[in-house]
Amino acid sequence: MNPQTTLKKLNLDFTNKTPAATRRRRMVWTQRARHLSQAAFAAFILGSSVAHHLATDDGATASIDALCPFGGIETLQKWIVSGGQFIAKTHASNLILLFAVVVGTLIAGGAFCGWVCPFGATQDLLSAIRRRLKIPEIHVPEKLDRVLRYGRFVTLGLILFQTALTVKLWFADFDPYRTLFGLDWLYEFDWIVSWPAYVVTLGVLGATLFVERGFCRYACPLGGAISVLGRFSLLRIRRDGPSCKGCAVCEIPCPVKLHVATANVVSSNCIGCMACVDACPRHGSLELKLHPTWIDPILKIFKRPAKAQLPVSGK
Ligand code: SF4
Ligand code: SF4
User: Fold this and answer.
1) How confident is the model at residue 310 (pLDDT cuts 50, 70, 90)?
2) pLDDT digits (tens, 9 = 90+) for 234-270
3) What was the pLDDT predicted at 151?
4) Measured by CB atoms within 10 angstroms of the end CB, which terminus of the chain is less buried, N or C?
5) In the prediction, which pLDDT does 308 show?
6) What is the pLDDT of residues 94-133, one digit of tens each?
7) Closest ligand 2 atom to Cα of 266
């Protein structure tokens, strides 16, 4: 095939130098890199699950429970209180992964959700299928959306409470991520024992087909914890008010439906997909900056005296 035709098919016509075409190319490449990263992590988790199920020796390969940073949150309390013990099915690997996610979040906010989490990738895949099949998306009304987002903290609180009470991975029996990627449904299908997990997973996947990133926005306990910690992250997407023309083009591709066009600093619910930055038609209006929000009050303190000195120098 003619290379030019191939590039046009890929929406990557390099001869077109208009700003819109440049933006389009940038967006395509960023999203490709993101999807590649998501696919690599999902493949690793699926590969580990298959190896775990096929292993003949017990404990020879890590189960999916040992590869989950949220398991680190669940086992942390027992580990601290008991001086180094873990709740069943968790290991030091959970705490190491939790530490990595905490550090990553303090640097890059919710990028774990946009670039790493296999269940986030599954939801992106479902949205892509919905778009391909031209199934209309369900837009959750603004007020309801704001309330439902607290659901993540309700789930988080409930899980921590129940885990402390039962001293086991209480959420594992319902967790749609574990159900899907753990592959028990493939190797050890058991409707009698595992029906709650199957029902929850099918319900979540069905709902996410219509509501983009529905589980991330309204129910994921790890997403809730990441969003709280993400408030302190070093990298934040910032909008430059004076140069922004308020067209809201940046809000169209946002998978988690954030109000980018009216925020000075994009919410910590952002998953760092960068689609809004690439979509913005005004160069420099929306940028990922090494500029945490906690530094703003400090900068203000240093700016004040300079302003106060202005009349003095004007004399
Ligand atoms: S919010 Fe939860 S499910 Fe969604 S991407 Fe983040 S960790 Fe994964
Ligand atoms: S605010 Fe921007 S970077 Fe964050 S999730 Fe939405 S589109 Fe992606």
Assistant:
1) low
2) 999 999 999 999 999 999 999 999 999 999 999 999 9
3) 98
4) C
5) 52
6) 999 999 999 999 999 999 999 999 999 999 999 999 999 9
7) 1
Judge if the beta carbon of residue 255 lies within 6 A of ligand 1. Answer: no
- Kindly list the protein residues whose Cβ atom lies closer than 6 A to any atom of ligand 2: 237, 253-256, 258, 260, 266, 270-276
Dist. CA 113 → ligand 1 center (Å)? 5
What is the residue extent of each domain of the chain? 27-229
Mean local confidence (pLDDT), 148-158: 97
What ligand has the least distance to the C-alpha of 248? 2
Residue whose CA lies nearest to ligand 2 atom number 1: 270
pLDDT tens for residues 129-145? Answer: 999 999 999 999 999 99
4 pLDDT above the threshold of 90: no
The answer to whether the CB of 113 is under 6 A from ligand 1 is yes
CA of 305 to the centre of ligand 1 (A): 44
Closest ligand 1 atom to Cα of 220: 2
Tokens representing 269 are: 């619910």
- Dist. CA 223 → ligand 1 center (Å): 5
Whole-prediction pTM? 0.89
- Residue 306 Cα distances to 113, 126, 278, 312, 314, angstroms: 41, 53, 36, 10, 13
